[in-house]
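Need tokens for this chain, all 176 residues.
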Amino acid sequence: MSRAFPLAGLLRLRRLRQDAAAAELAGANARASAHGARQNAARGELQQTTSEVATAAALSAMAAARSSARSMLAELEAVSQQNRVQQDQAQTVFNEARAGSVRLEKLAAKHAELVAAELLHSEQTVLDEIAVTAWHRDRGRDRGPDSGPNRGRGSDRESGRESARETGRGLDRGKT
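Here are the structure tokens for all 176 residues:
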């Protein structure tokens, strides 16, 4: 008797899209997190380098290293920016997929409530019919065999036959 939700296939498809979007978002978050950790480690290493220079060659090497580090940090920042953009896009796709799923989930829940209400109504109707039938049956037992729609008719017939016999006998007696 239970009716299936007519849009169940579409709901499954939307949930699959939502799951795929959630997986993509999780991947973007993981990439951003890993990249942030690499960026923080590179900054930490650069901060631990010494600033003391003994010779001109060391000064030149230190300037080249800092220039290289600055370039590396700029690249890391560009990758971080790209990761944030991918994260935002993945979040947007997930939010849209989730919104589509939520709408259908609400429809499915309303459908389930409607089917449950119809089932309860049909069960209540059956219970009411059983109760009414039992009530009529019990009411008939309380009145006895002379009760009901033919109440009194059978007894009138029998008493009428008896009085007709007595009347007939009385007539016959009077004639003799």
